[in-house]
């Protein structure tokens, strides 16, 4: 009887280390998948399709941009070690399946978009191209010329989700 009990306990112990599946999807995993899907949708838009800059970090990632204002051809580009003055506004969404605001089950309105403005009162921000900013923005700045105005889209892997 003791032997049978020991065998049963051993089997229960071993069974506790098995799992039903190889992977558990967390909120962060789902957010990343949703973000990648939305980014690919934007990247395939004709306004962005031919404006792709690949990251050098080996992450197999890229940003896309749309030119709003084009600088003169002879305008300089900032180097990785430079500081730049930029008018910079950004945002990210928590849930791509919802609008910027949406009603909750209890009737409250939820904000689904986090905005950050670094250029208040029409005063440009001074940023180091090499540090203190996300890799996607650094990548864009190194390809822009002084006077360019771009709308850029940065995937989570080159933005704040990395």
Plain-language structure description:
- There is one protein chain.
- With 162 residues, this protein is an alpha+beta fold.
- The chain has a single domain, classed as Chitinase A, domain 3 (Roll).
- It has helices spanning 2-15, 27-43, 46-49, 135-143; strands at residues 52-54, 62-69, 83-86, 89-93, 101-103, 109-111, 113-117, 125-128, 149-153.
- It has a 3-stranded antiparallel β-sheet with strand order 1-2-9.
- The chain is globular and about 55 Å long.
- The N and C termini lie far apart (56 Å).
A few lines on this structure:
The chain is α+β, with helices and mostly antiparallel strands.
Query: Helical region count?
Result: 4
Radius of gyration: 24 Å
How many β-strand runs?
9
**Structural class, from secondary structure content?**
alpha+beta
Order of helices and strands: HHHEEEEEEEEHE
**Strand order in the largest sheet:** 1-2-9
Strand content: 15-25%
Tell me the CATH architecture: Roll
> Would you state the CATH class?
Alpha Beta
CATH fold-level label: Chitinase A, domain 3
Number of domains: 1
- Terminal-residue CA separation: 56 Å
The best one-word shape is globular
Largest sheet: 3 strands, antiparallel
Low-pLDDT residue intervals, each spanning 5 or more residues = 1-19
Mean pLDDT: 82
Helix share of residues?
25-40%
